[in-house]
Amino acid sequence: MAHSKQIRILLLNEMEKLEKTLFRLEQGFELQFRLGPTLQGKAVTVYTNYPCPGETFHREKFHSLDWENPTEKEDDSDKYCKLNLQQSGSFQYYFLQGNEKSGGGYIVVDPILRVGTDNHMLPLDCVTLQTFLSKCLGPLDEWESRLRVAKESAANSKWIQEHPESAYNLVNSPHLKPAWVLDRAFWHFSCDVAEGKYKEKGIPALIENDHHMNCIRKVIWEDIFPKIQLWEFFQVDVYKAVEQFRRLLTQENRRETKSDPTQHLKIMQDPEYRRLGCTVDMNIALATFIPHDSGPAAIEECCNWFRKRVEELNSEMHQLINHHQEQAVNCFLGNVLYERLAGHGPKLGPVTRKYPLVTRYFTFPFEEMALSAEESLIHLPNKACFLMAYNGWVMGDDPLRNFAEPGSNVYLRRELICWGDSVKLRYGNKPEDCPYLWAHMKKYTEITATYFQGVRLDNCHSTPLHVAEYMLDAARKLQPNLYVVAELFTGSEELDNVFVTRLGISSLIREAMSAYNSHEEGRLVYRYGGEPVGSFVQPCLRPLMPAIAHALFMDITHDNECPIVHRSAYDALPSATIVSMACCASGSTRGYDELVPHQISVVSEERFYTKWNPGASPSDTGDVNFQSGIIAARCAINKLHQELGAKGFFQVYVDQVDEDIVAVTRHSPSIHQSLVAVSRTAFRNPKTSFYSKEVPQMCIPGKIEEVVLEARTVERNTKPYKKDEHSINGMPNITVEVREHIQLNESKIVKQAGVATKGPKEYIQEIEFENLSPGSVIIFRVSLDPHAQVAVGILRNHLTQFSPHFRSGSLAVDNADPILKIPFASIASKLTLAELNQILYRCESEEHEDGGGCYDIPNWSALKYAGLQGLMSVLAEIRPKNDLGHPFCDNLRSGDWMIDYVSGRLISRSGAIAEVGKWLQAMFFYLKQIPRYLIPCYFDAILIGVYTTLLDTAWKQMSSFVQNGSTFVKHLSLGSVQMCGVGKLPALPRLSPSLLDVPYRLNGITKEKEQCCVSIAAGLPHFSSGLFRCWGRDTFIALRGILLVTGRYLEARNIILAFAGTLRHGLIPNLLGEGTYARYNCRDAVWWWLQCIQDYCKMVPNGLDILKCPVSRMYPTDDSAPLPAGTVDQPLFEVIQEAMQRHMQGIQFRERNAGLQIDRNMKDEGFNVTAGVDEKTGFVYGGNRLNCGTWMDKMGESDRARNRGIPATPRDGSAVEIVGLCKSAVRWLLELSKNNIFPYHEVRVKRHGKIVTVSYDEWNRKIQDNFERLFHVSEDPSHPNEKHPNLVHKRGIYKDSYGASSPWCDYQLRPNFTIAMVVAPELFTPEKAWKALEMAEKKLLGPLGMKTLDPDDMVYCGIYDNALDNDNYNLAKGFNYHQGPEWLWPIGYFLRAKLYFSKLMGLETSAKTMLLVKNVLSRHYVHLERSPWKGLPELTNENGQHCPFSCETQAWSIAVILETLYDL
User: Fold this and answer.
1) What backbone phi and psi angles, to 5 degrees, belong to 890?
2) Considering 454, 789, 954, 1449, which has the largest number of Cβ atoms within 10 A of its Cβ?
3) Do 588 and 576 form a contact (C-beta atoms < 8 A)?
């Protein structure tokens, strides 16, 4: 029953591209690809580059996966192909439909990290990481040789000087020349400002205010831009161009160039980017400017027009460069503002050569010269190759775009946030584009992977994706479980996912410094990992859900500004604790714990980190120990972080106690222990800001075992901070007081702790604080109170029978309720399917009959079923999302009402049902003793175990088709349990007392024995109880699928015989009304009944025995009063013969009690019932224009629309499906009589006072000979058989009826002919049948059902609204019930007909039909799975839209789909 292997299912859907969706999996998981509804039935092949066992990974090497179908059935609901994931990294999959790519995506498999001498596994959530700048670690030989992790692309690296082609330089990227000129101009300007040369223009070396900024702007626009004239790099030399144009115009043998209106003159950029080096296309110029003759004046005029156009183009280019310059000035000043004026910036002070006005964008490894002299270098390749672009990042840019490539103006517009210490490497698209660079970086990557288990991709978005893929592939070959941490600034989760999925990033760096207050910091903890406390237990086999990247949550990164400046030194400890309590990897940066009060610059910091010295005093600037900063507390919270990750504390709750206090709970769902960290943040400096001394009380559920840690940030009496010249020193005057593993009464932060009870068995500890000052933390270890702990252990012990998941934390005891010593499967095995109907299902009206009702959830709605399915449907919605805030969960936490309802409802019944109730009650005894927040999770676990066991019990009692069937078949077969039940009052008339194997029960009131046969409800919730539960037509359309296909033969027999007992006038009742209130107003029910008897005889072992079974006739004559069972018994074959004989004789009667008491809408003539058999054709006919004797039985009800008492679809004459059913019955009886199984060979009737006999052989032949002649609408307009050619509007179809009182009704395209095709295929010529089916598919097939009328028909309307009353005759009060809405049950006959005739049309047609059938059925599967009713509806509105007036689950809808699956 329970898997222990973790399996995830990825549904493939047509054209679903999931490249930006992250799917995370672990090694050891199995990933199954299954076909979604859009692909079922289609030829799909899945390809992946996940390597085959024993092979190594190659990104470009894909192989196909083999499909597995565990049930080997034809429906695709369980078909899958799988990957057993044993390797970490990023892997791609895609799938083809035929030969066309139809969708794809990536999966990321986490690495397994191992540490320690025993090589134990380190979960990713245990990772604690600290960032160091290696250059600040000092001259350790080993460190230097092994951990050279400083940027290897530094501008002064030896290899880059030897291989300048590896960087973007002015030789391989001449488009950067204008930006280089601008950069040099800005550098010279900065040097001049530093030397005071611009003082008289209002720019001193120390930039202090807006006036200075405005002066900078003025100088750039008035002095620098005019001097460097950047626009010239993008313009044409007008004089040269005009002279060239003149030469070409005056050439002797010049060919005439035709003008092309789509070609316009435009500037062609000089690829070498020389000043005025651009050109224009002279061919376009010659075709545009044409002299009217060859004289010199005309030539000159033409040249002037050309000159004017080139000058215009130059002017446009000047304007464009002006826009770029505007942006460049804004970015320049923005940089100055941040670095020199902003409160949160570094305040660099006076402009110097070391701290220029702006960071340089390009290298210049030569001696400085005048700008004009420097510019001459850009055209000398041996010099220009050393003029390289620095790397950096662009705020808000597309990270997938390379900002240094042609087409990007980032360098020219000064939009780069530049790292002045590393050049931008130019990889190109493949190793061949820059062989040395790829080889060098690959070697560097391999060395790193040899010595380290993990790598950090800093500014991951700035490395081209294909390069990062190549390097990581090389690293993973050496270190298969490579831990890849990355920092990304893409600005969107979707773009983050592109990098995470393509590169297989293990953890993404997330920054606590992005939180603007403690509330936001708490939200980030919740966002980045874990699940809510009290979460549901998820099944091992479940859908693969999109994930967010695993987080490495850092209190500070090396790029962040200093939190002491931004917040306060007092916040270091509480924020570090909050971050460490997150259920993900956590990290920090060296300097944070020592309280270094400034950012440690990656570029400019030259000092070394402090050294460890246990004996150092606080005033020692070069040494640190446990007394320094928050180091002692950090050690404790790191240990705790490790424990929480390793021991499965993966449930998280964040409580914002007040604006500064955040409480983070980490909970273990197996041992139900919690750690609660209460942190009082200090985003504002406590010395200068007000913090209340009043701290709110806290209530912690359970028993506090110990205080794991309490720590307070305090000041001490030492010298204040002074920046040391040699060491990166922190603030000596602030430290933490730390106490670990103490009892609550020893705490200096907790004033007192009282125990309160909330509810009968829930213990709460109330905590009052006294010294929780800003910068303090206290962490409690909390267990359940001992009583609850025992109850949870016992519950888990009993749940192990359903899943091994509950073994940890389970507790075996001897004094439990004796019923719990019996395995639940043993109790369930004694249940019948009829009893399972009561335990699992029963809608409101069914339950109401027994004096009960469905459970109503306050602030939400009532459950669909009183039985377990009602609860399971809601839980199935909320479990995967862990929606613990749902009203359902609120109700469970608030009281025991629902719990008592579930068990009490079953105990009130008797026998095996009550035993199930008692078992649940015994389990619920323990459930009620655990904390309320855990009740939803354990209530769900109990119900899942019980529910799945009961389903297995149901399937074991069904046919081998169900037992060996697919998930779809099994779930659909539960419709048989859902629809077949026994109410308080038996719905069926009593069977003959002499019949064997009839179920009996004791009547609760009379205490007498009574029959209790199941009946089939037509549909839920509208046709489920009382008089309206059982209908002859619905019962026998549904019976084959609901009872025979599922193997419930005895119930099927009893229903057939019970209805046989009600035969009157040769008809089976429409509304059964227990027989005594029956209405005999339908012409088709008797034929469906006969079809079921035929199906029973063919499908059931020894099925023919039913023909001899006794039938107790309630009405032996048409006019007799209802007789008690056993008064008049007849064998079934005699009743069958009577039905046939009465039809041949002709049936004519008026319904009893005709009038308002039985039908408030019917007109008087409608109560006259007629039926008979046409002597010439053998067709059954009947009805009149004012009644409706077939399944399309909508009677008009609206006075406003004047349709009351008028049937929308009388279908009088010979309805096509009734003719087909009659043919099927006659053919079958003929076979039986030939084999002497049925004693009658003929029917005898009185005609004109004489006895006339009609043999079954003759009747059979008549129908066969006349059917296609009279029902088929020929494709030949002049066909002699066609009586009403003017009424034909679809050719090649079969009529819906023959001989209707309104002849045009015969010609309407409806789906009823497909029924005749299934029951009597011999009536149809295969080719004609196929064309008619193709027309039905084109015009009538909907997503779930069949349109009941051709959409081209003028009265078609596909939306059914029974509440609408207006003056529209065709719509009012749902008059269009069968005039367009899409009914489900005809689709079963359509699909079965397609399957049957496709086999006669050849292999290719048969294969295509199989695809169609599977595809249509997949939509029913999706509906079944998603429906809270777990059924298929009666009908839908057009195009499959939900119809609120439909039954949500209908017996015949489920039956026909089961029959189709059976045929497959």
Assistant:
1) -55, -45
2) 1449
3) yes
Beta carbons within 10 angstroms of residue 355's beta carbon? 16
**Cα→Cα distances 501→9, 28, 482, 485, Å:** 18, 19, 15, 13
Cis preceding linkage at 1021, omega within 30: yes
DSSP label of 377? G
Query: Of 1146, 1366, 1388, 1104, whose CA–CA distance to 1239 is shortest?
Result: 1104
Q: What DSSP assignment string belongs to 1307-1364?
A: T---TTHHHHHHH-GGGS-HHHHHHHHHHHHHHHB-SSSEESS-TTSTT------TT-
Q: What is the DSSP string of 855-870?
A: -B-TTS-B-S-SSHHH
DSSP 391-406: EEEETT--TTS-TTST
State whether the Cα torsion 1090-1091-1092-1094 is positive or negative: positive
Please enumerate in sequence order all residues whose Cβ is within 8 A of that of 456, keeping only pairs 6 or more positions apart, or say none: 131, 485, 486, 487
Q: How far apart are CA 71 and CA 362, in angstroms?
A: 67
- Say how far residue 634 (Cα) sits from the centre of its chain: 40
Tell me, what's the pLDDT at 154? 64
**Residue 1433 · residue 1440 · CB < 8 Å:** no
Long-range contacts of 397-404 (CB under 8 A, 24+ apart): 399/461, 399/462, 399/488, 399/489, 399/490, 399/495, 399/499, 400/465, 400/495, 400/498, 402/464, 404/168, 404/173, 404/176
CA distance 661 to 695: 9
* Phi, psi at 400, each rounded to 5°: -85, -5
Q: Kindly list the catalytic residues.
A: 458, 461, 559
* 1062 to 159, 707, 987, 1058, 1250: CA distances (angstroms): 100, 79, 13, 7, 29
Q: What is the DSSP string of 872-902?
A: HHHHHHHTTTT-TTSHHHHHHHH-SHHHHHH
Residues 6+ apart with CB under 8 A from 377: 366, 383, 384, 387
Q: What is the pLDDT of residue 146?
A: 24
Report the amino acid identity of residue 41. G
Tell me the CA distances in angstroms from 123 to 148, 182, 676, 1002, 1342, one per residue in order: 27, 51, 21, 61, 50
**pTM, full prediction:** 0.89
DSSP 928: T
Q: What pLDDT is attached to residue 152?
A: 40
- Report the b/e string of 1205-1231 with b at 16+ CB within 10 A: bbbbbbbbbbbbbbbbbbbbbbbbbbe
According to the model, what pLDDT value does residue 1149 have? 96
State how far the alpha carbon of 1084 is from the alpha carbons of 559, 1127, 1221, 1228, 1383, in Å. Answer: 81, 28, 9, 18, 18
Q: What proportions of the chain, in percent to the nearest 5, are helix, strand and coil?
A: 40, 20, 45
Q: Which two tokens stand for residue 134?
A: 């290696």
Q: Is 1139 helix (H, G, I), strand (E, B) or coil?
A: helix
Q: How far apart are CA 477 and CA 665, in angstroms?
A: 40
- Residue 142 CB neighbour total at 10 angstroms: 7
Q: Say what the pLDDT of residue 145 is.
A: 30
Dist. CA 1352–CA 654, nearest whole Å: 60
Spatial CB neighbours of 492, under 8 Å, sequence gap ≥ 6: none
Which residues of the chain register pLDDT less than 50? Answer: 1-2, 142, 144-152
How do 44-48 and 611-612 pair as beta strands?
unpaired
Beta strand extents in 1004-1126 (DSSP E only): 1009-1011, 1015-1016, 1019-1020, 1110-1112
Which of 190, 169, 224, 163 has its CA nearest to residue 378? 169
Query: What is the rounded radius of gyration, in angstroms, for the C-alpha atoms of the chain?
Result: 43
The residue length of the chain stands at: 1464
Tell me the C-alpha distance between 15 and 97, whole Å: 10
> Is the four-CA dihedral 618, 624, 626, 630 of positive or negative sign?
positive
Strand 727-728 relative to strand 608-609: parallel, antiparallel, unpaired? parallel
- Tally: H helices and E strands in the chain: 40, 54
